[in-house]
Amino acid sequence: MQLINLFCLALAGLVAASPVQKELAERQNQKIRIMPLGDSITEITCWRAFVWDQLADAGLADKVDYVGSQYSNPQNCQPKTFNWDQSHEGHSGWLAIDIANSYLEGWLRNTPADIVMFMLGTNDVFRGRSTNDIIAAYTKMVNIMRAANPKMKIIVDLVIPLSFGNQGIEQLNARIPEWARSMNSTESPIVIADCYTGFNAWSDLRDGVHPSLSGDRIIADRVGPLLLEYVRQALDGR
Ligand SMILES: *[C@@H]1O[C@H](CO)[C@@H](O)[C@H](O)[C@H]1NC(C)=O
After folding, report:
1. How many angstroms does the Cα of residue 223 sit away from the middle of ligand 1?
2. pLDDT over 80 (residue 12)
3. How far apart are CA 107 and CA 2, in angstroms?
4. What is the mean pLDDT of residues 131-140?
5. CATH number of the domain at 31-235, out of 1.10.630.10, 3.60.15.10, 3.40.50.1110, 3.30.420.40?
6. Helices of type H across 44-121
7. Residue extents of the structural domains in the chain
8. Ligand 1, residues 151, 152, 184, 192: which to mutate, most atoms within 8 A of Cβ?
9. For 216-220, which contacts have Cβ atoms below 8 Å and span 24 or more sequence positions?
10. Cα 82 to ligand 1 centroid, rounded to whole Å
11. What is the DSSP annotation of 104-167?
12. Whose CA is nearest to atom 5 of ligand 1?
């Protein structure tokens, strides 16, 4: 009798444990979702592809997904990894201010993310928007990201230079470090990818605004290691 009871208890234990184990297995199989967010410097460039090569070289390509409403390779980038993920949230000509006010919330609802990496502000500078307004848009975007996912890991890029009228870019970049520190948190960290220092506004741009291949390499070299670190943390933390 006692043996039978024990047997029944053990069986009940197995049955009870299996959904938990299933859920754990499902969580561990879920890919880490990365949103490349930005303007044309994200859409019509190759750094996304070169960062994917870094993920592949680190053995992480099958553990991650790029996410976003867009899927394209307009520059016909040819990274080492032929089947790199072309999803992204880069929108040519768009302002940080408009993305913050009207779009990001819906994008993150449609394609949820664990990591957002963004470079934005170039078009705001073009249109004469103030540094204060751009930084306010950054704050709004981070709040939207955290409302969508309290554990969002965020990479913010220092913006690459323009070959003309670079003052607004420099003013924005000068504000980003203090802004990022003030918004930083343990649960939802923010790190800065310095895509500005050492970026040559002539040889690393192909048209005065968009990176040439050497410029794409610089952006990928600055963003990639931070992204790999975030992906490893996200994989460890579940
Ligand atoms: C945010 O905090 C993390 C540690 O939690 C740190 O590694 C990172 O550099 C901080 N970011 C900024 C912009 O200070």
Report:
1. 15
2. no
3. 58
4. 98
5. 3.40.50.1110
6. 47-57, 96-98, 104-110
7. 1-30, 31-235
8. 184
9. 216/45, 216/46, 216/47, 216/50, 216/77, 217/47, 217/50, 219/41, 219/45, 219/47, 219/119, 219/157, 219/160, 219/193, 219/195, 220/47, 220/50, 220/51, 220/53, 220/54
10. 34
11. HHHHHHHS--SEEEEE--HHHHHTT--HHHHHHHHHHHHHHHHHH-TT-EEEEEEPPPPSS--H
12. 186
Mean pLDDT of 57-62: 98
Which residue lies with its CA nearest to atom 8 of ligand 1?
191
- The atom number, within ligand 1, closest to the CA of 192 reads 13
Checking if the pLDDT of 10 tops 80, the result is no
* CA within 13 Å, CB half, 170: 6
**Cβ neighbours, 10 Å, residue 38:** 27
Half-sphere exposure of 46 (CA within 13 A, CB side): 21
Average pLDDT over residues 155-181: 96
Q: pLDDT at residue 80 above 80? A: yes
